[in-house]
Amino acid sequence: MRSQGGEQAPKHTDAVLRPLDQADLRPRVQASIDEILSQQGALLASVSPDMEPLVSALRDLLSGGKRLRPAFAYWGWRGSSQTDEREKWDAGVVQAVTGLEFLQACALIHDDVMDGSDTRRGLPAAHRRFAGLHRGEQWLGSPESFGVGAAILLGDLCLSWADEVMLTADLPREALVRAKAIYDEMRSELMAGQYLDLLEQACGGGSVDRALQVVRYKSAKYTIERPLHIGAALAGAPASVFAAYSGYGLPLGEAFQLRDDILGVFGDPEQTGKPAGDDLREGKRTVLVAIANERADETQRVQLRALLGDPGLDASGVATLRSIIEDTGALAHTEAMIDELLERSLASLTDTVIDTEAVEVLTGLAYAATRRSV
Questions:
Q1: What is the pLDDT of residues 206-231, one digit of tens each?
Q2: Neighbour-count burial for 177-210, b at 16+ CB within 10 Å, e otherwise
Q3: Residue 10 phi, psi dihedral angles, 5° rounding
Q4: Which end of the chain lies in a sparser environment, N or C, as judged by fewer CB atoms within 10 Å?
Q5: Is residue 130 situated within a structural domain?
Q6: pLDDT tens digits for 79-90?
Q7: DSSP letter, residue 283
Q8: Taking every pair of C-alpha atoms in the chain, what is the biggest distance, in angstroms?
Q9: How many domains does the chain have?
Q10: What is the distance in angstroms between the CA of the first residue and the CA of the last residue of the chain?
Q11: Of residues 364 and 2, which shows the higher confidence score?
Q12: What range does the domain containing 105 cover?
């Protein structure tokens, strides 16, 4: 049996069909998030009851979700840990990888500020939420400035809590020290990728290669490769496991972001939680857009320059840009890239020392990351 992209589809095991539900990981991560927010909320409440909107905004943002980064970190650990160690340290690993959700919350909140996004997961973005609070209370000054300031501080809190969650997990100190070294690299790479993304926006976009460089550091390494490495570090895995995880994680991370780019243009707002064509209004210089620009004729290129990044872009403008992306073959080419990257990723899981159960789950996660609609 073959998947929609043409590569050999995996066997329909439960681990492949529902990889995010294996080991009850999502509810366990959610329970860990809820406990952390309860503890940190109590601390903030002791400072002032005025802090409650911060915790409330974060609780809404972190309610539900795919939990991809904790999943890759957890199964990175399960795939390379000793069998007799798994039950002993399982709960501590879940706590440690929960920290990645707070790092992701920081990234999302700050990213929405930088992009001027209105929504996130179907709700007002944090800076819009706090601007609305300011406006509703009729406070002094600019609601927009208040919203941006509050969102930046909330993101900073998440970054601080992410460190605290990981470093206080119930795990051997030497394991946490190994993981922290990977985590530090991941954060620096993420911020570098964010800056490169900003730079591409400011420069008006460049080549496909430049767009792919942003993808690698802003998404591929951060979403998949480094979480896997954190899991391997917690397990004290050998270099061969790290290499296998890189071979799997980097192409899959690129495919994950390419799928995200397609959804940002063609996704259903009911499923993505963002307005149709929002990435086009924000002028995101994605691989999809770079390919379209390289293949466009002069008329199409003029339209791309005129419409891409227009915050007032209406449905007609969105339709025009979508047509250009399709007519230039950029959409079909990006889909083909996703298929090729997925195939290369899965090939790295063969003939490895990674635990068989983890290989099944990682296979399922690969399909979940690239065939998703949200």
A1: 789 999 999 999 889 999 999 999 99
A2: ebbbebbeebbebbeebbebbeebbeeebeebeb
A3: -75, 165
A4: N
A5: yes
A6: 999 888 899 999
A7: T
A8: 64
A9: 1
A10: 25
A11: 364
A12: 14-370
Distances (CA, A) of 45 to 54, 130, 314: 10, 18, 43
Locate 202 and state its tokens: 């400011």
**7 occurs within a structural domain:** no
Contacts of residue 330, Cβ cutoff 8 Å, sequence gap at least 6: 288, 289, 291, 292, 295
Phi-psi label, residue 238: left if phi above 0, alpha if psi -120 to 50, beta otherwise: beta
Q: What is the pTM of this model?
A: 0.92
Q: Tell me the per-residue pLDDT of 279-322, one tens digit each, with 9 for 90 and over.
A: 899 888 999 999 999 999 999 999 999 999 998 999 999 999 99
The average pLDDT across 258-274 equals: 87
CATH number for the domain spanning 130: value is 1.10.600.10
For 50-93, the pLDDT digits (tens) are 999 999 999 999 998 889 999 999 999 999 998 888 999 999 99
Examine residue 3 and state whether it is found in any structural domain, yes or no: no
d(CA 24, CA 225): 22
